[in-house]
Write a structure and sequence with these properties.
- The complex is a heterodimer of chains A (about 260) and B (about 325).
- Chain A is an alpha/beta fold and about 260 residues long.
- In chain A, the strands form two sheets. In chain A, strands 9-8-7-10-6-1-4-5-11 form a nine-stranded mixed beta sheet, with helices on both faces. Chain A has a two-stranded antiparallel sheet with strand order 2-3.
- Chain B is of the alpha/beta class and about 325 residues long.
- Chain B folds into two domains: about 180 residues, HUPs (Rossmann fold, 3-Layer(aba) Sandwich), CATH 3.40.50; about 120 residues, Rossmann fold, CATH 3.40.50.1220.
- Chain B is about 25% helix and about 25% strand.
- In chain B, strands 9-8-7-10-6-1-4-5-11 form a nine-stranded mixed beta sheet, with helices on both faces.
- In chain B, β7 and β8 form a beta hairpin.
- In chain B, α3 packs across α4 and α5 runs parallel beside α8.
- The mean pLDDT of chain B is about 95.
- Classes of the chains: A alpha/beta (about 260), B alpha/beta (about 325).
- At the A-B interface, α3, α4, β7, β9 and β12 of A face α3, α4, β7, β8 and β9 of B.
Chain lengths: ~260, ~325
């Protein structure tokens, strides 16, 4: 099975964020970046499918030069080769614009399966995989926890709301968006990190893919969210704060 | 004629609550734009759903009906709605932000060369749509800058379901042309992984733990707090993903929705998927090392500090107060 995994590099979950001078995005200088977690689960699913059925795992990522570190991490975990869509202007493209770039880069590879995380931790749009399926005219399923190869296609476990699940059968080639938690993530081994340095990493520029960046939807401004409740912060040492909270729980919330 | 179409979803034979919230968002757009508000139901047999929608203050209700729409598939829904929207041009198409909508609405919008503005939390003059970024740490203002139509999906709880007045609307039927081979996925019946043995929904007190606990070995710290308080132990998704606690203890969009008297969140940053499952709690207490964590946006009381110091101190203080 030839599998392409689309992964995104996102600001590290614990990195402090500051709004930049344009007011449209966060200040990226000095920011730590990491592999988007649902994409890490998509990569894990791909590597397991390859281990079970053979084939090839290709990782694909779009973004500026810094994205290279996340691509190397995926190669170190076991992906066979990588495609880097080099673009410094992803922020000015909307979800359809980015998906068009990815679709163009995927087309010449003709994979059996395309996996990606169900959403990114930065923009949280949760659309790239579904739009890719539409652009490539492939069947898709989203929020997938488990993938099994059957006959000429796949049987997948889809998460529904409120603790329900559903199995779906679909033919390949197909696109799946992967929900986190379906597998345990592997770490890169020292050997893997060493090998990653020699694996093929092909760069293709957004301009070469011939897609314009005129968006239909624009992020005009970002801001700190407005508070929904007024929070009373209980300060002091751990002991003092705990004592203050017990007072509140006893006399105001009345649960002790 | 241009209009606002709100696509309603069914849950156990009735229009779902979040669909009424989407209709309320549609009504807010109608007030702002003076466009007529229409409701749309989809399925193989939609008479009862359409009647339910027609009893609301809307300009009309459309039943999109076809035998191949008996069960949801992304191919079926996308094809049916694409045909409907081509025949009935809209300015705004509004969806409830559900797992089902996430599965097909981005493809439908792309088929019409548009982009869904998903999971919106508010609509202001313009219209400008607000949605959360970076797991709720920031909020973004989005605008449709292309020709449209404009597709939006509305977050659960962002609009009031009871804001829609009663009415009596005309019902029309739209019959799309769909052939079996167009539907490429074969869905199975929904199932639950195992019988639920924990009903967090009825627990008056909940202590909930998140990523901040770092390791499974540290969980007894929080379990002790829950025991001292007489509370049920719950968790955010990453804890259950790691297998540290069973899935049935998960609170959030993919787990249980709770509204206890006290929800004490320990080491939970408060990603939106978690907040939708607990923000209706009567009192929310958050213990987190990051003063900017989104959990503090919904908390009544907060302690900014190291949970490994605060939680044992709190457990002791509760024991001596009892």
């Amino acid at each position: 099975m030839k599998i392409i995994v689309a992964i995104k590099q996102v600001p590290d979950r614990d990195a402090p964020v500051r709004i930049d001078a344009s007011g449209k995005w966060i200040e990226e200088s000095g920011l730590q970046f990491a592999m988007n977690e649902p994409d890490a689960y998509a990569l894990e699913e791909a590597l397991r499918l390859k281990e079970a059925h053979g084939g090839e795992v290709i990782v694909l990522s779009a973004g500026p030069e810094r994205v290279g570190t996340t691509i190397r991490e995926a190669l170190a975990k076991g992906a066979d080769r990588a495609i880097h869509i080099t673009a410094d202007d992803l922020g000015s493209r909307d979800a359809l614009g980015v998906a068009k770039l990815i679709a163009e880069a995927i087309k010449p590879e003709s994979p059996d399966l395309i996996l990606t995380g169900l959403q990114s931790e930065d923009l949280g749009l949760g659309q790239t995989g579904v739009i890719l399926a539409e652009l490539l005219n492939l069947p898709h399923a989203s929020l997938i926890l488990h993938v099994e190869a059957i006959g000429s296609g796949l049987k997948v476990k889809r998460e529904l709301e409120a603790g329900w699940f559903q199995e779906i059968e679909l033919p390949t080639p197909a696109v799946l968006t992967i929900q986190s938690g379906g597998n345990k993530l592997r770490y890169a081994t020292l050997m893997g990190i060493k090998k990653a340095k020699t694996k093929e990493l092909r760069a293709v520029s957004a301009a070469d893919l011939g897609q314009s960046s005129a968006p239909t939807v624009t992020l005009e401004q970002i801001a700190l969210p407005s508070k929904q409740r007024s929070t009373q912060i209980l300060s002091g040492s751990a002991k003092e704060a705990a004592a203050a909270l017990v007072e509140k729980l006893k006399f105001e919330v009345r649960v002790i | 004629m241009s209009a606002i179409f709100v696509i309603l979803e069914e849950n156990n034979g009735q229009i779902s609550r979040i669909s009424w919230e989407a209709l309320a968002a549609g009504a807010a757009l109608a007030t702002q734009t003076s466009l007529p508000l229409h409701a749309v139901v989809i399925g193989a047999s939609t008479e009862a759903l359409a009647a339910e929608a027609a009893a609301k203050q809307v300009a009309g209700v459309t039943r999109i009906e076809h035998a191949l729409l008996a069960q949801y598939t992304p191919d079926g829904w996308t094809a049916a709605l694409h045909q409907f929207l081509t025949a009935n041009p809209a300015t705004y198409i509004v969806f409830p932000h559900t797992y089902q909508v996430r599965d097909y609405a981005p493809a439908l919008a792309a088929r019409m060369n548009q982009v869904l503005i998903g999971d919106i939390t508010g609509i202001s003059a313009g219209p400008v749509f607000a949605r959360q970024l970076l797991q709720g740490r920031l909020s973004g203002s989005y605008k449709q800058t292309g020709d449209g139509p404009c597709f939006i999906s509305v977050q659960a709880g962002a609009f009031r379901a009871d804001a829609i007045a009663a009415g009596s609307a005309q019902i029309a039927t739209f019959a799309p042309t769909i052939e079996q081979p167009q539907i490429r996925t074969k869905p199975g019946e929904p199932f639950r992984a195992s019988a639920q043995t924990v009903d967090l929904g009825s627990a008056p007190l909940i202590v909930s733990v998140g990523r901040g606990i770092k390791e499974a070995d540290n969980l007894p710290l929080v379990q002790d707090l829950a025991t001292a308080l007489g509370a049920e132990l719950a968790a955010s998704r990453p804890i259950c993903d790691n297998g540290w606690l069973p899935m049935e203890r998960q609170v959030g969009s993919s787990g249980q929705t709770v509204a206890p008297k006290l929800y004490l969140a320990v080491g939970i940053s408060g990603a939106i998927q978690h907040l939708v499952g607990m923000k209706a709690s009567q009192c929310i207490v958050a213990i987190n090392k990051d003063p900017d964590a989104p959990i503090f946006e919904v908390a009544d009381y907060g302690i900014v500090g190291d949970l490994f110091e605060v939680v044992p101190a709190l457990t002791e203080a509760i024991k001596s107060a009892k």
